[in-house]
Design goal:
221 residues; single chain; mainly beta; 14 strands
Length: 221
Amino acid sequence: RIYVATGAPCDFCTPDDSERGAILSFALDGSDRQLVASGLRQPADLAYDGADLWVVDSVREGLFDTPDLDEVNRVEAGADYGFPNCVGANMSDGADGTCNAVPPVIALPTGSTPLGIAAYRGDAIPSMQGKLLVVLNGSYNALELRGYLLVAADPQTGIYEEIMPARPDDSPGSNFTAEQMNYRGSGFFPRRPLDVAVSDAGWVYISVSGGRILLMRPENS
């Protein structure tokens, strides 16, 4: 089947159309339209990893001070992921009974804006095997830079690690945070990473605003 994610029509509202802020599926000829899951705000990308379908999503504006509200979700048939009323800790215990939403598998920094996702398969970079590569497009209208990263997330533990920008070594002089590296010009900023793809050979391609495509591959390959 073909799976399609649709964004919500607004930053914070209950969509009039049940097929907005949702995941739809179709037969390969475009027939047999089905609503698979709902309650998403900005489901910017989908990726299969074996039998599991994954989707990224980002929270509405105005919640920048509440941590870890952007997310990676495992798509489940019939699931509601909470938009617009259920976020963070308020995913399943709403006092009025309206927040019985499926929590994310991987929580990402609020405002980091996940836009792209790809499952890593291949032998070229063994440390990434079994991980989900997620592009964090970056925060908007905030002094603090969040995102502007490529991260590798483990769906078994929910833990992710920063892959790009990468520290050149482990010396104390290189011990900068991702935000510091971006402000120093050694990260993506002021450009933004847009998407990620993995080739059959296991090489990783990252598209970046300004018309660039970066390649990550083993040395001497």
